[in-house]
Amino acid sequence: MGGERKVFTLAEVSQHNNAKDCWLVIHGKVYNVTKFLEDHPGGDEVLLSSTGKDASNDFDDIGHSTSAVAMMDEFYVGDIDTSTIPSKVKYTPPKQPHYNQDKTPEFIIRVLQFLIPLFILGLAVGVRFYTKSS
């Protein structure tokens, strides 16, 4: 392609998001795939669902053939201004406090684990001593 390359913002490309006018952003380039919608092996829904965003990951995940990649040149309309594409934010789950299912402090549990057997032992000795002396 000779001459200057047209540079689009993501907002401009996002306006082309229907079956009559469908543009995609793949690897920093903008493609007008409107004429290809009916011929796409995966159906037009796949392409339409990738409009308005950077569809590079969607494109790469499918594993297109080299002929499919070469075919993209005929749909090329320009480049994307990468500063208009939102950066990907890594998901970090919210911090949650330690969850104690029975809501009993661990100290009380440890004390009870020590005292209950002692109480049972003392009760057994007391019953044995009381029943033996009668």
Give short descriptive properties of this protein.
134 residues, alpha+beta, five-stranded mixed beta sheet, 5 helices, 5 strands, 38% helix, rod-shaped
In short:
This protein is of the alpha+beta class and 134 residues long.
How would you describe this protein?
The protein has 5 helices and 5 strands. It is α+β, with helices and mostly antiparallel strands. The chain has a 5-stranded mixed sheet with strand order 1-5-4-3-2.
Q: Level of helix content?
A: 25-40%
List the uncertain runs. none
Quaternary status of these chains?
single chain
Radius of gyration: 34 Å
| N to C succession of SSEs | EHEEEHHHEH
User: Going across the major beta sheet, what is the strand order?
Assistant: 1-5-4-3-2
- The count of DSSP E runs of length 2 or more, i.e. the number of strands, is 5
Question: Which whole number gives the mean pLDDT?
Answer: 85
**Biggest sheet overview:** 5 strands, mixed
Q: What is the number of helices? A: 5
The secondary structure category is alpha+beta
Distance between the termini: 112 Å
Shape: rod-shaped
In what range is the share of β-strand residues?
A: 5-15%
